[in-house]
Design brief:
single chain, Rossmann fold, 6-stranded mixed β-sheet
Length: 174
């Protein structure tokens, strides 16, 4: 599926709610982008994973995700492109092995890419960076599905779609 076809499918499944919404990490806005909805559609989920996979460098051997938004997509990308999956918790577990990392625990020899569904404030990515940097690993960059706001981060990032691109496409569709 091409990027334009993915965009068309995202519009078809109504990922944009055009009503006031309270965001997790910032105040209210006049719309909400529910990119998580795409995870319920295998064709879209796999197509997004393929787009991300095309962007991966050969030496980037780990995909790091945190929170509910990045996990399904990160798991598909890691599996399809033979990368290790690092899942970062916001809070440590109180049972079993303690700590913030589940799945693969990266080492200093790994190069990690952070994957997230939406970039609004950058808080989620900054938190993931902090958790992973404690292990002295190299974080090459972040790949975001939808950029809501331009944000300054301590690592480079790229995105698949801007919110403006999605909103304009939805308006042009009808």
């Amino acid at each position: 599926m091409t990027k334009d076809q993915i965009l068309e499918r995202l519009i078809e499944i109504d990922i944009i709610y055009r009503e006031p919404a309270k965001f997790f990490s910032r105040s209210a806005g006049n719309f909400y982008c529910d990119i998580k909805k795409a995870c319920g559609y295998p064709d879209i989920l796999n197509a997004l994973a393929d787009l991300i996979g095309e962007k991966l460098q050969e030496d980037e051997n780990c995909i790091a995700v945190s929170g509910y938004g990045g996990l399904p997509l990160g798991a598909v990308v890691a599996s399809r492109f033979n990368r290790k999956l690092v899942t970062v918790r916001k809070m440590g577990k109180k049972h079993g092995p303690r700590g913030l990392i589940d799945g693969y625990v990266p080492t200093k020899n790994d190069i990690v890419v952070i994957l997230d569904d939406v970039l609004a404030t950058g808080d989620s990515i900054r938190s993931t960076i902090t958790s992973i940097q404690e292990m002295k690993v190299k974080i090459s960059r972040a790949i975001i599905v939808v950029e809501i706001e331009k944000v300054e981060l301590p690592i480079p990032y790229e995105f698949l779609f801007s919110i403006d691109e999605i909103l304009k496409s939805g308006l042009n569709r009808g």
